[in-house]
Design goal:
The complex is a heterodimer. Chain A is of the alpha/beta class. Chain A has helices at residues 14-17, 87-93, 131-140, 160-163, 185-195, 207-216, 249-252, 258-266, and strands spanning 22-31, 37-43, 55-60, 64-69, 72-74, 77-82, 100-107, 119-124, 145-151, 170-174, 181-182, 200-204, 222-225, 255-257. Chain B has one domain (11-284): TIM Barrel (Alpha-Beta Barrel), CATH 3.20.20.70. The chains are: A alpha/beta, B alpha/beta. Chains A and B meet through β4 and β7 of A and α1, β2, α8 and α9 of B. The complex binds flavin-adenine dinucleotide (FAD), flavin mononucleotide and FE2/S2 (inorganic) cluster (FES).
């Protein structure tokens, strides 16, 4: 029993550390495409190494705290790709180089990625944000992977290769048929999974796309990365609960197996 | 049981709490109307290992309360409804819905420190405490627990709550506090200030429980900074008969509940007792 005398919250185990707000300084905050921006910051204290698809609560001082997935990370910096939606992301887009913000995380559960898994990553909409870090991680685990990136129109695209390494091939799918595959990412997925064998399929994007993805990959090992309203990120406030389940996105997710969330995706 | 405000606002939350292995569940504090609560940041960990929160009593209002209570009962859990209000009428209204829904007990939140017009704004005045507890206690025979916080008057307020008919007291709520980021020079919580919980308030909770037990020997639900069996045991020795876990549920909740129960069991037998009940308030023995 002697170990018990050191209070659980008294020692700075990595888990405890991830609930603090770590200050960070902005390196740059640039436009990537008509839809996306990327911000790269230097944490002023070392962070626990995130594993995809973990996320951070990014605090824009005096304005808001918003959940953003890790787009890239190394020992000196961390980057996020984001879309300006409302007050929080708008304020984030105004932070120039040298400004300060706060980072709480990494939060959520890492995906269990087995070494050497052949993986298909399907992203749509703002789901592109965590792509560079997921692919970096897959490469580091010796996984072969392919990426399908679905967008509505051409102007949303940016050169993913410029923000990520090790990607051999990206299938682009556009709904307006202006580039690449003509149609939805899930339709292209259906074609690929009927021809090739994948050990793992990961989907990131809007709910409708993830629902179709789960349907077309039924029977495969598919995980979908979801979004709900995350307010605390710590499993305390309950705002991120997936309706009709006992799952909290911020601690049990954000990645879930299709079977776990099919009912939610259908609503 | 969990401390009020850790989940407990929807049926889904109750299902989640049930998976932690708790004997009873306490709902989020319900108010008559739904409340959005404050914008993030709402909960932050502190460098002193505590947490600070200003959630702003976010809850779906009494319309959803029956479903929440039903879920707790369905899962076979003792279901305690935390009742909030900014007026005597609101406390009575919410309590009535809770009672009609079959709540096993009511816990009156007379101690939330960061929402204007609620909680501590009411609970720090012993006369208010008496009136609210009396009005709610007279609605039915369902046990009413008064949850009080740290104020200059906590011993007096405790006495008034008991006089008003409270069967037990929950001690303590969070303690008013604030955190400022030293780089951006801004307060971090959107509400600017909030309530501190976790290990830093544990010795305060021990003192409050000790003082109130010494004065009245009431049934006390101890809460504040429990992170392991030792912090739980201290509150029992000070006078707590039941315990609630709050912010510590942010870290491996199931393991936490199991290890507290396991540790307490070993401790009771180590001291040569058979029941925890025999250790309640033992620190007062001369
Ligand atoms: C785990 C997770 C990871 C995310 N990663 C990214 C990312 O890498 N890049 C990116 O562009 N977006 C990401 N999002 C979405 C992003 O958090 C929201 O777009 C952002 O919070 C909107 O805030 P706002 O104040 O600008 O807009 P608001 O005006 O507040 O809202 C605009 C829209 O965003 C939704 N939203 C608002 N607040 C939240 C919140 N706290 N959590 C979830 N949704 C919210 C609203 O429902 C609304 O539809 C992620 C969301 C989650 C839950
Ligand atoms: C996120 C959060 C929300 C809370 N909400 C409520 C609430 O709605 N009603 C209430 O009576 N207490 C609320 N509290 C206070 C707790 O019930 C408890 O009294 C306090 O956190 C001390 O316990 P702890 O140190 O174990 O966290 C809240 C605490 C936290 C951390
Ligand atoms: S965001 Fe608060 S519990 Fe998940």
């Amino acid at each position: 029993m002697s170990r018990d005398w050191f209070p659980r919250s008294g020692d700075e185990t990595p888990h405890e550390h991830t609930h603090l707000v770590t200050p960070a300084r902005v390196y740059f905050n640039n436009v990537l495409s008509s839809r996306f921006r990327m911000i790269k910051v230097k944490p002023l204290r070392s962070l626990v190494t995130p594993k995809p698809p973990q996320f951070f609560m990014v605090w824009v001082p005096g304005v808001d705290e918003i959940p953003l997935s890790v787009a890239d990370y190394d020992e000196k910096s961390i980057s996020f790709i984001y879309e300006v939606k409302g007050a929080g992301t708008n304020a984030l887009s105004k932070l120039g180089s040298g400004s300060y913000l706060g980072l709480k995380g990494p939060l959520g559960k890492p995906l269990n990625i087995v070494e050497g898994f052949s993986t298909l990553l399907v992203v749509g909409g703002s789901g592109v944000a965590p792509t560079p870090y997921i692919t970096k991680y897959l490469a580091s685990r010796g996984c072969r992977f392919e990426v399908i990136w679905g967008v509505k129109k051409r102007s949303e695209l940016f050169n993913l290769g410029s923000v990520m390494s090790g990607v051999e091939y990206i299938h682009i799918a556009t709904e307006d048929c202006s580039v690449g595959y003509c149609g939805m990412a899930s339709e292209l997925t259906r074609e690929l999974v009927s021809k090739y064998k994948y050990d793992l399929v990961i989907g990131v994007g809007p709910k409708g796309m993830l629902k179709s993805l789960c349907e077309v990959t039924s029977g495969l090992n598919t995980y979908v990365v979801l979004e709900t309203m995350v307010k605390c990120g710590l499993g305390l406030c309950g705002s991120c609960v997936l309706p009709n389940t006992d799952k909290l996105l911020c601690v049990d997710g954000p990645a879930f197996r299709c079977e776990e969330v099919m009912q939610y995706l259908r609503t | 049981m969990n401390a009020s405000g850790i989940l407990g606002a929807t049926p889904e939350h109750i299902a989640k709490l049930a998976s932690y292995g708790l004997a009873a569940v306490v709902t989020k504090t319900f108010t008559e109307k739904p409340r959005e609560g404050y914008a993030p940041p709402i909960i932050i960990k502190l460098r002193n290992c505590g947490y600070i929160n200003a959630v702003g009593l976010a809850n779906p209002g009494i319309e959803l309360l029956p479903q929440v209570v039903r879920k707790g009962k369905e899962l076979g859990l003792v279901t305690i409804v935390s009742v909030g209000g900014s007026s005597l009428e609101e406390f009575v209204k919410v309590s009535t819905v809770a009672l009609d829904s079959g709540a096993d007990m009511l816990e009156l939140n007379l101690s939330c420190p960061h929402t204007r017009g609620y909680g501590l704004d009411i609970g720090s005045d012993p006369t208010n405490v008496y009136e609210v507890v009396k009005a709610v206690s007279s609605l039915s025979s369902t046990p009413v627990i008064a949850k009080l916080g740290v104020s200059d008057n906590y011993v007096k307020s405790s006495g008034k709550a008991l006089e008003g008919g409270a069967k037990a007291l929950t001690l303590i709520n969070t303690v008013k506090a604030m955190i400022i980021d030293v780089y951006s020079a801004k307060p971090i919580l959107s509400n600017v200030f909030g309530g501190m919980s976790g290990p830093p308030i544990h010795p305060i909770a021990v003192k409050v429980v000790y003082d109130v037990y010494k004065e009245y020997e009431p049934e006390i639900v101890g809460v504040g900074g429990i992170v392991d069996w030792i912090s739980a045991a201290e509150l029992i020795l000070a006078g707590a008969e039941a315990l609630q876990l709050g912010s510590a549920l942010s870290t491996k909740p199931r393991e936490l509940v199991d290890s507290v129960l396991e540790g307490l069991k070993e401790w009771v037998s180590e001291l040569g007792y058979t029941r925890i009940k025999d250790l309640v308030g033992l620190a007062h023995k001369k």
